[in-house]
Amino acid sequence: MKLSRRTTVTATALTALTLGGTVAATAPAAAAPAAATAAYNGVCGPGYQVIDATPVGRVGTVYVTWNGSTGKNCAVTIRNTPGAPVYMAVELNALVGHETTPDRDNGQYTTYAGPVYVDGRGLCIEWGGVIGNAGGYDSGHCG
C-alpha cells in the first residue's frame, strides 16, 4: 500500500520544508506508471527504475528512481519544455532520525537539475524540485 503526502509549493516554501518537514511512511513501489516515466531521461544511469514522479507546478516533474543492486535512490527535476536557462533545483534526502544530509543540485539550467543520489536502504526518503517560481515536494518510499 502506498501512503504519500503530495504538495505543490513555492521555491521559498520548499526550502522551509526541507528544514523541518515530516514524513509519511510507504512501502517501496515496484515502478511508476508508464505515463509518468515517459519524460524521464535516464540521467540517473543504468539500473535505475522510476518509482515516483512529483509535479513541479505545471512546468516540470521531479522523478525519483531506485536501483535495487546498489540500494540507492536518485532524483532529477526535468522541465516539460527545455528553453532559456532558468533557476532549477532538485533535492533528495534519506531520513535518519533528526540528522539528515540531503544531496542537492541547483543552478541556471535549460533542461534538468540533478541527478542527486542517497543511500535509501532501510530509510524513508523525501524529495523536491524547483523550476523558476514553481516547486513540488513529496516523501515516502521507506525501505
TrEMBL record:
Keywords carried by this UniProt record: Signal
This protein's name: Spore-associated protein A
InterPro entries from the UniProt entry: TAT_signal
Residues spanning the signal sequence: 1-24
